[in-house]
Amino acid sequence: MKRSICLLLAVLTLTLSGCSALLERDYRSVSRHVSHTSDAEDTSALRAETYSELVNDVQFFVSMGMQEGVVHLYRYSGDVEADLEAVSQELLTRDPLCTWALEDIQWSHSRIVSYDECVFTFTYRADPAQIPSIQYTVGSTAIRELLENVLSQYDGTLLLQTSSYYAKTDLLLSLVQEAYYALPGYALGYPDVTVNIYPQEEGGSQHLVEIGFSYPLSQSRLQEQSQRVTAAAATLVGASPAQGEVGCWLLYSRLAELDSYDPDGSASVYNALVDGAANSQGIALAYQYLCDQAGINCLTVQGTLDGSPHWWNLVETDDVWHHVDVTAGYSQEHFFFSDSEADLRYTWDVENYPECPDPPGEPESPDNVPLE
Length: 372
Known about the structure:
- By secondary structure, the protein is of the alpha+beta class.
- It folds into three domains: about 5-130, no CATH class; about 130-215, Translation Initiation Factor IF3; about 220-350, Roll (C8orf32 fold).
- The protein has helices spanning about 20-25, 50-65, 80-95, 95-100, 140-155, 170-180, 220-235, 245-260, 270-275, 280-295, 340, and strands spanning about 5-10, 30-40, 40-50, 70-75, 100-110, 115-125, 135, 155-165, 190-200, 205-215, 260, 275-280, 300-305, 310-315, 320-325, 345-350.
- Strand 13 and strand 14 (about 310-315) form a beta hairpin.
- Helix 2 packs across helix 3, helix 7 crosses helix 9 (about 270-275) and helix 9 crosses helix 10.
């Protein structure tokens, strides 16, 4: 008598139909249950009667990180040895988890009275202990949230299984960049990023993505720096931060007084808030972090100043956006400037940022010059 047990196989089963509405929706985690049947005579083995059940059983062994697994075939109508080879090759070349995890699958087969016993032995190229950490998700927002979590912990690897639509190196690198700059308090040096996609061949609805991060310092050192950044920001913002233009100016002036602008300096927010010297990127990220802590809407802008790479900020007050460049040393009367004023010296991708309109009356460009 068969005894069925339901074992969770964490395999993403969303099928994207190409409908744009579906592509806009984010799913954090999707899984399906695959019914496996244990052999009543030997509960250490799984039972299969069809090719698809055989594939599912072998997938299950790998999902559990097993070194060896046994399947008993009952009333199997196919060519057993040919199908065992076919299953092994299919999983090694087409299955997302197996192409990432495995180096090889070996199998043996013997006939035992009423069933065929198939023994699978797995050689892993990846650490099986990593398998439970695989995230099953789809959607740019959900993937970026996972990336933000990894970057805020300074972890070295993110493993995720997603649809082929999102398993693209350029898209994933773009999401890493978005996640990094959305976390200015953790921006202690942009990591070297590698993206590996399994299987590598195009086709198939699912892929496993391994994103690796190599940081300029150790994880413990970065976490220590992050704590010091938090403390420094709290001191600059104060217990009761001001809002609006006054709040923006107070943060601007405090950061400008603290920092020495070094065009060739560090891009780390730690150097800007703790060491007191950084390049325009480090200072702009520091200003964004201070604004975030004060409840002021702020963005960091990447562009050029007088033809050289440069970073600055946009802030919103009373539903109006303004340019702000802490490195420029402008006076309180001129530290906000509009798109038309910025256009005299700055260039940026205007389509990626909100418009900063001219103030009432004739626009007046800042008459100060950037600090050297």
